[in-house]
Amino acid sequence: MRLLQGNEACAEGALYAGCRFFAGYPITPSSEIAEHLARRMPQVGGTFVQMEDEIASLAACIGASLTGVKAMTATSGPGFSLKQEHIGFAAMAEVPCVVVDAQRAGPSTGMPTSPAQGDVQQARWGTHGDHPVVVYSPWSVQETFELTVRAFNVAETLRVPVILLLDEVVAHMREGVELPAPGRMPVLERSRPTGDPAAYRSYACAPGEDVPPMADFGAGFRMAVTGLTHDESGFPSGRPAVADALVRRLAGKVERRVGELAAVDGRYLEDAQIVLISFGCTARAGLRAVRLARERGLPVGLLRLIGLWPFPDRAVAELAGRVRGMLVAEMNLGQVRREVERAARGACPVAGHHRVDGELMNPEELLAALEVLA
Amino acid sequence: MIPSGYLREDRLPHLLCAGCGHGIALQALLRAAEKVNLPREGTVFVGGIGCSSRLVNYLNFDSLHTTHGRALAFATGIKLARPELRVVVITGDGDLAAIGGNHLIHAARRNIGVTVLCLNNENYGMTSGQYSPTTPRGMLATTAPYGNLDRPFDLCRLAEAAGATYVARGGVHAVFQLANFFARALTHDGFALVDVLSPCPTYFGRRNRLGDGKAMLHWQQEHTVSLAAAGKKTPEELAGRMVLGEFVRREEPEYAAACRELSRREGAS
How far is Cα A248 from Cα A88, in angstroms, rounded to an integer? Predict the structure, then answer.
């Protein structure tokens, strides 16, 4: 058991997952990830670089990943806005990478040292065009470690950018963490081509597959990579049928796997009539509120969202069909509530409890909101 | 004779306009690649956005066509992750000096081992002729209909000031000299920039009544002077002329190697 800060656990999780390249730019409240990895990367034979800006940091990660090295960058609010350009590139060119966003109060430079959960929709739709993305949001230091490993595994196997949405509280708090021994948690690698390099086509999938094998730069496969719409050869194409097939395959490879990608944590749901839905630091107060409600005899349960995108529609819809109401608690003005409303399809009322003042929610205010619904 | 094997001939014909200087620059690059025996399996070409950057698609190497202005940031990641790879960026004046200006100065400052070939046609050709950071004052562009008010960058002086360890300027009207600069840049162990004057008859030339591609080569010849000759001329005689030559050529520790050395030291301890 080690006492670690959330940001340190994230950095150690990345190393456990085999990350050997980190490029970043200083920003509160994520800087400790860079500081930790500046010290640790050389010790494990990896590379740390502080780039000239946020945009360059993710570009450098993508360049490193294309050589076969697992790569991560970390940022916060304003920096996350700047990451969007290359989140789109990574999605389009199918380059595995992990982007950490320790959310802080916005919009704009907002309140740099205060927590928020206002980047949920930006994580999904911040970069232009239809694109796949996978997002996880841990609620504890232990889970930050584990979800960082998971983020790399998903990024590698699906060739997508994976976003880890921390918040200022999870990023900065310290908790005891059990670091798993090497081999305890699975660490997955991208699929690499094995055939004749001369026959390799950079974006050709095997029959029945939707993720193309990825060669490393320098391995002799003459890989062609572009952010332009491209065909299986990796070279630009303006043909409508090519564009249609590409964008649908990119979106489909995540949508088709929503069952394995979406992750939720249910507490006291068996007999629940009212469900509190939350995630990240807010869910910590949420679980306490649910326990307080149970002590008072209220049939309340908690659905904690671990994966935010793809959204766990099925888990929400199943609950919506058998409960009297749902309360979404989040530190924004309704970014997850609208998704819950969409998934619930009117099967039950959905209320929201929202804070955007940079203050943590406390269990008592959530209990009061639950009592109104009960 | 154009060296064979370095071109992806199945990608031809190229998208360049008739009279564009970029094809000549590509030819000079192929000559230089052959001269220095550029390894096909150990070299990555990286482009940004613009006419020049699209050349990476015609080269039979690993290629990465990136976002506007960011080619050097991607190239930095490649070089740091795999220092044994040779990384060459093909870019243009808008891509490198405007939106990518910050990446240029910091890559030069670090002295990372990346070769940058900037095909400088003094305007944004791919978006049909807006003024760029290298458009001379007074010249016309679609966004400078009354003449350009901006002062242009001298990319070589900029790169030198930022710390580049190989800096040269050539022109596609002097292709053998250009190929020599390319050859030295490709084998330089550190940050290397070649500023390549390359005419854009379709937009810059037409709007400024400079004639077709051939006429623009003559115009370019008349508006350039060698570094040796420039030393004997007065400032008045040099006005309006670009100086061609090697401005910087020196050895300093390369950045990716320094990172690797740090890992060796700390990993062993």
Answer: 15
Residues from B in contact with A at Cβ < 8 Å: 11, 40-42, 44, 46, 57, 60-67, 70, 73-82, 84-85, 102-103, 106, 259, 262-263, 265-267
Q: How far is A342 from chain B (nearest CA, A)?
A: 35
Find the angle CA(A325)-CA(A328)-CA(A333) to the nearest 5 degrees.
Answer: 135
Give per-residue pLDDT as tens, B28-72: 999 999 999 999 999 999 999 999 999 999 999 999 999 999 999
| A270 burial via Cβ count (<10 Å: 0-12, 13-18, 19+) | exposed
H or E segment and range at residue B247: strand B242-249
The verdict on A154 and A10 lying in the same domain is yes
The answer to whether residues A90 and A62 touch, using CB atoms and an 8 Å cutoff, is yes
A-B contacts (CB, under 8 Å): 130
Q: Using the beta-carbon criterion (under 8 Å), do B262 and A42 form an inter-chain contact? A: yes
Calculate how close chain A gets to B99, using CA atoms only, in Å. Answer: 11
Query: What sections of chain A are H helices per DSSP?
Result: 6-16, 31-43, 54-66, 77-93, 120-125, 141-158, 168-172, 240-255, 258-261, 280-295, 313-320, 337-344, 363-373
Mean pLDDT within A236-257: 98
A285 and A157 in a single domain? The answer is: no
Give residue A19's domain range: 2-177
Out of A20, A217, A221, name the one closest to residue B85 (CB): A217
CB A278, CB A286: distance < 8 Å: yes
Interface test with A, best of B15, B85, B263, B269 (most A CBs within 10 A): B263
B42 → chain A, closest CA residue:
A218
With both helix axes pointing from N to C terminus, report the angle between B101-110 and B71-81 in degrees, rounded to the nearest 10. 30
Residue A57 with chain B: CB contacts under 8 Å: 73
Mark whether A313 and A173 lie in a shared domain: no
Query: Which residues of chain B neighbour A52 with C-beta distances below 8 Å?
Result: 73, 102-103, 106
Looking at this predicted complex, what is its ipTM?
0.97
- Residue A116 pLDDT more than 80? yes
The residue from A126, A161, A177 where one domain ends is A177
State both tokens at A188: 């997955």
User: A42, B265: Cβ pair inside 8 Å?
Assistant: yes
Residues A356, A359, A362, A368: what is their CA dihedral angle, to the nearest 10 degrees? -40
Token pair recorded at residue A192:
């690499």
Are B64 and A225 in contact (CB < 8 Å)? Answer: yes
Q: Per the structure block, which two tokens stand in for B180?
A: 């020599």
Determine the Cα–Cα distance for residues B216 and B20; give it in Å rounded to an integer: 10
CA distances, B41 to each of A120, A167, A359, B38, B78 (Å): 42, 43, 55, 9, 14
Query: For residue B90, what are the domain limits?
Result: 35-229+237-268
Quick check: A60 and B80 CB within 8 A? yes
**3-class secondary structure for A130-149?**
CCCCEEECCCCHHHHHHHHH
Strand partners, B222: none
Q: Let me know whether A131 and A9 are in one domain.
A: yes
Compute the nearest-CA separation of B39 from chain A (Å).
10
pLDDT at residue A374 in the model = 85
Domain count, chain B: 1
